[in-house]
Structures are given as structure tokens and as C-alpha cells.
């Protein structure tokens, strides 16, 4: 990017904070490799958007994508839960994992609520604060000003300011910088391809680090929100946290390289490769879901008169692939003996698999489906 300056370090007495340059200005792209990657990313996103448009009951499968995203995004921040744990009810989660479980559930709620809010609110500081408030509600960061921009200095890495890896701008400049970011997101007079725009917004948000806690998760949440708001995706089906988590050191290194060397182009390339890879993976997942759906529907036909009830259970499992006998009863309206018979049928077909080791309150997983995520 021609003439890009990330910002400068400013002495605050005992430490130096980084003051980013505003981003709401004109940009010029000169790197041909970047333009080639941009073209590939646009094509893959177009294919993914087409899939999301033609798959019936897409919202069921999106809920699993959101669960995976929440798990991966929270894992980057140090939670030690996996997707199977997240799908459990809280009473079925071991005590040592409940804090992590609640943090991931908050992320799911923050993302879902923010997507719904886009109908009435633009992607704005107000919406970002709402998402942050949901994210920290009742969990370990609940005392760190949920829903409010910070009023003190924070830092990244290290035990204190004196040994921090990175020190974001002083709190007195946060409102101005976030206002600039919001204006940039909606400035139609500035031509910059949307994928580069959200890449730059994500970088700038992480550099501003406007909250005392939860900045990484909120920053990653901005990506699907922006793509949906701009109409690039009709549904929120693209999430980059898995890519960032698998390439965690590259993710941090590329963000640091922007600040240290004014090299925004390398960050853009890393981001676009993530869009391309993640879109391809999501397309493959949707394709495999359709194949699995067809296969399972054929299997269930062997159950004769119990097939309609079995299909109701399976449809429910696409949104949450863990189930107990009580839920099977709710979904089908069957009596307890018929519920247990149906579960046994679905186990024999290899559709359900018992995962609680014979406990009284048995839980079953739609294993083949869960593995796709």
C-alpha cells in the first residue's frame, strides 16, 4: 500500500505506547500479487455464498459453524474447552470446565445477537460495545468494564507495562480512533475492496485494543459482521478463528510487522489466504453435509413406520448434534418405551453413538456429522 504509515511510539514516562495513524483516508494498491489473491478470495466467497443460498435449513448448520468459531476464537485466548463440551448442557459439564464453557457460550450469544442487531444498527461502536457486554457477562472479565471502552492503559504480553510485548494507545485517544474506524467502515467515497477494508479494520481494532479484556474475540467477530452487513455474504458462514488459531504465531507476527515495519501488504496477503482456505473448507463441509443428509435419509427408510420420527430427531441434530432421551421425546412426542426403541434403532444404524459411558443420564452424539466440524 503506497505511503502506508502504521503509527508511532510515544513516550509516556516509564513506557512507550503505540499511537496508530487514522485509517479513514484514501488508499492505493500497487502490489499485483495482492490483487491476484483478492480475485481468488472474491471467487471463493462467491461460491460459499451460493452454497449458503441453496442449502435448505441453512440456519441449522450455521449454528454449528458459530459453535466451532466460538470454540476456536476462545481457544486463542486460552480457554481449554472443545466443541463437544460446548454442546453439552451446563449440568453435564465438569466443574473445572464450566468457566470456559460459559465464556464460549457468551461468544455464541454475542455473535448471534450482533448478527440480529445488524437489521437495525450499522456496524458501529454502539454495536461493538453491545457485543462486548454480552461477551463478558458473568464470566472472568465481568469486572473489566463490559460494554465500555477502557479508561486506563492496557498491554499485551508480559506481567506489567515494563515487560509488555505491545502497549496500545493511551485510553484518552480510544474514542477518537474508534470513531475514525467506524467512519472508515462506512465511507463510500473511499475506494478499497471490502476484503482489504475488513482486513484493515481488524488490524486497526487489535492495535487500538479499546477494551480491558475480550479484544481478540471482538476483533475476530467483526469479520463475519462486516461481510454480512456489506452483502458480501447473505448468511454468516465464514469464520477465520480456526485459520488464525492454526497459524497463531504467523497471525501475531503479521500484526506486529505492520506496526514495526509499516508492512500492511503482508498482513493483507495472510488475511486473504485465510479467506481463500476457510471458504474452501466451508464449501467442502457443506458439500459433505449434503452427502451425509442424503445417506442418512436412505438409512432411516429401513425403519418403516418409525422413519418420520427418526427424521425429526436427525433434523434436530443438525443444529446441535448431542441429544438425550428426554429431548428425543420432546422432538417426537413418543412415549418413553418408544423413545428408547428409536434411540436403539439409530444406534444400530450408526447414526447415534452413546458417549457417557453407560451413565444413568445417557447422551448420544451424531458422530459422523460432528466430525465434519
Q: CATH top level of the largest domain?
A: Mainly Alpha
CATH structural fold name of the largest domain: Fic-like fold
The second-level CATH architecture of the largest domain is Orthogonal Bundle
What kind of sheet is the major sheet? 3 strands, antiparallel
Task: State the order of secondary-structure elements, H for helix, E for strand.
Answer: EEHHHHHHHHHHHHEHHEEH
Strand order of the largest sheet: 3-5-4
What gap, in angstroms, lies between the N and C termini? 36 Å
- What integer is the average pLDDT? 92
Q: Outline, from the CA principal axes?
A: globular
Radius of gyration: 23 Å
Query: How many discrete structural domains?
Result: 2
Spans with pLDDT under 50 lasting ≥5 residues?
none
Number of strands: 5
In terms of DSSP E residues, the strand content is under 5%
Percentage of residues assigned to helices? 55-70%
Please identify which CATH superfamily of the largest domain we are dealing with.
Answer: Fido-like domain
Tally of alpha and pi helices = 15
Query: What structural class results from the helix and strand content?
Result: mainly alpha
What's this entry about, in short?
With 373 residues, the protein is mostly helical. The chain is built from 15 helices and 5 strands. Strand 1 and strand 2 form a beta hairpin.
Protein architecture, described:
There is one protein chain. The protein starts with 6 loop residues before the first strand and ends with a helix. The mean pLDDT is 92. It is mainly alpha-helical and 373 residues long. It is globular, with a radius of gyration of 23 Å. A hairpin with a 4-residue loop joins strand 1 (7-11) and strand 2 (16-20). The chain folds into 2 domains: 7-278, Fido-like domain (Fic-like fold); 286-370, Winged helix-like DNA-binding domain superfamily/Winged helix DNA-binding domain (Arc Repressor Mutant, subunit A, Orthogonal Bundle). The protein has helices at residues 32-54, 58-76, 83-87, 98-117, 125-136, 174-186, 194-208, 215-229, 241-246, 248-261, 264-300, 307-319, 325-332, 336-348, 367-370; strands at 7-11, 16-20, 322-323, 353-354, 364-365. Helix content is 58%, strand content 4%. The protein has a 3-stranded antiparallel β-sheet. Strands 1-2 form a two-stranded antiparallel ribbon. The chain contains 15 helices and 5 strands. Helix 7 packs across helix 11.
